[in-house]
Amino acid sequence: MNNYNKIAGHDTGRLIAISDAVFGVAMTLLVLEIKVPEIEGGNKDLATAFLQLMPKFLVYFLSFMTAGIFWMGQSAQFEHIKKSDRNLSWINLLFLLFVSVLPFTTAFLGDYIKHEFAIAIYWLNIFLLGITLYINWNYAVKHGFVPAEDKDEVSDAIKKRIISSQTLYFIGALLSFINSYLAIGVIIAIQLNYAFAFFRGKKQ
Amino acid sequence: MNNYNKIAGHDTGRLIAISDAVFGVAMTLLVLEIKVPEIEGGNKDLATAFLQLMPKFLVYFLSFMTAGIFWMGQSAQFEHIKKSDRNLSWINLLFLLFVSVLPFTTAFLGDYIKHEFAIAIYWLNIFLLGITLYINWNYAVKHGFVPAEDKDEVSDAIKKRIISSQTLYFIGALLSFINSYLAIGVIIAIQLNYAFAFFRGKKQ
Amino acid sequence: MNNYNKIAGHDTGRLIAISDAVFGVAMTLLVLEIKVPEIEGGNKDLATAFLQLMPKFLVYFLSFMTAGIFWMGQSAQFEHIKKSDRNLSWINLLFLLFVSVLPFTTAFLGDYIKHEFAIAIYWLNIFLLGITLYINWNYAVKHGFVPAEDKDEVSDAIKKRIISSQTLYFIGALLSFINSYLAIGVIIAIQLNYAFAFFRGKKQ
Amino acid sequence: MNNYNKIAGHDTGRLIAISDAVFGVAMTLLVLEIKVPEIEGGNKDLATAFLQLMPKFLVYFLSFMTAGIFWMGQSAQFEHIKKSDRNLSWINLLFLLFVSVLPFTTAFLGDYIKHEFAIAIYWLNIFLLGITLYINWNYAVKHGFVPAEDKDEVSDAIKKRIISSQTLYFIGALLSFINSYLAIGVIIAIQLNYAFAFFRGKKQ
Lengths: 204, 204, 204, 204
Known about the structure:
Four copies of one chain form a homotetramer. Chain A is mostly helical. Chain A is 75% helix and 0% strand. The first copy, chain A, has one domain (2-196). In chain A, helix 4 (54-78) packs parallel to helix 7, helix 5 runs antiparallel to helix 7 and helix 7 (116-142) packs antiparallel against helix 8 (148-174). The longest helix of chain A is centred in the middle third of the chain and has 27 residues, at 116-142.
């Protein structure tokens, strides 16, 4: 049976394809959580009902960003990871498991936005995404799937980025013990920072 | 951390792949809004119930076209955009956010087809799609991701097209203050025009 | 604006990618129509409830086959179609519109399997899929997107196949005026014939 | 019509693409089965309600792994299968049919976790996935779609693996007559074994 290890999972192409499919579906399924309100009446009532959906849209936006950030993170890694094996495939499937759970944790947070427990679960999801992505890179580097010149240049940047962002997320989540909207606001701010690099030099 | 900017998002391949996944899912999820009617009785009753779904099918058709038009627009741009960076990736993820919201705004319009507010929200969705697509092209051209020869030939055509279509959509949406079916009819007419180039020369 | 025609839709790659996404989603969404039964009691009751779902599974199987057949048909065409333009893209988007409607017409048939009207709607869906696929091939051949040597060899085979299968589907649908299970049985038999080529020589 | 056989289904590229789409959607749809609980009260009540979802998460994890294992299996085969024909396409579509049914059998098992009948249905799904995958490889080898050197090296490994894992699954399912949690636990253990190769040498 050891032969099977030799033949399974060498292709990063399909790993990337299934990742894009899972991300694409998860990102789009998120919107199913926002139900069209049922009202009687004119434009004013409809506008009021629509505005009441804003917390849901906020959470939706938050989760789309979360998915986007981790999609970017995985993409960045696979620009350097040139080979794969069975274990790396499973690490990525585990990562995708946590991606596919996002629509649930998002809906959970959307319904219980004032409960610290819901924020904790949401944070746990982000944390597990970060961990598996870290393991992914670590494993790929250790097993020689990343060409040497790439490794020297980017490996520390990738690891540092995951650790620093996860530290900030953790602090953000802790803030929910003071105020849950504050916690979510800070998490969104962290994400905007990582997404658009506002607080750093603007040179690319 | 600045190193991370260098390593993230150079690959237009995955950007295109995630786009196709989000578009594909959004286009297909739209149909979940059309529920099978529950009736007792024979073919006549079933046909009547089916015909009552026509406004829903109209809105479905409208939204499938909207998605198709913007998918074509993004495709056309990425035939010329040969490189990417982190910011361009985020511009496209924002664009995809507005794509993934289409099933909601479509259902919203389907349920409140006579409310100007619902048309306004739908128009806003189209508007945001147009804006992000415009920014996408602009950014790509400014940062040298479009080869010079392509830029001269097509850049103005792409921009003009977005501006003129968005102007027409805006006028179409304004018509909802007269009559909402008129507004939707005009928007569909604009889309048919852009899709099939009926009112222009037939030469390709 | 005529320049835009030159720059939109030359890429069959993305057309194929969005097709696979829409097919993949439509094929998988079909299963959402089959709800887990709610029962109290032991294995016997559960088995009984499960068996009552059989008509739903039959319709599911039918629709998965329908989607598979048209996916095969479109695949076969695009092995020969080497270029594309805006119109061909729109023909395919229209084709995908009818694919994305399959989960609805399937559910409709599943709920009203004894109504000729439901079979007629289902047949209409198959018919529209056939028509757009025929137009797709015709357009591609006329506009020189199919290399000359392929054209001579396969064009007639592709057209004949669509016409003969559509004729058989039409006859199958007409049988619903005698008995709707007979009609569905015949349609499935036609599909099995086209899928596995049982009734023809076994040579490939 | 025999000509059509010559022109359909030579492209493994699209077969792989539709597979990744169906797997991606099926894996992500699974989470829709886990509904956000509706409670009144504070964090404690929310945590309790969340913990009650654990059996659902267990089944979700099980099914994600099942999908992952068969995705890996199909991937491994298509690293060696270099050509395709119409029959091979249909074998794979049948395989995908059983993949797309996973969200249903998973939900079924999730709701009736103590019923042997539900475990039997779930096992049947795994069994059918194994069978079609076996047929896929067999057909590809017999029709010369696998290069000779690959065939000698890996063919037995692939077949043995399917047979031994299916035997273990069967034994696992039989255990449900003693205790259903035991049966599921053993099935998960089998899957972990196949996924991570815990009980074998650690060399890759």
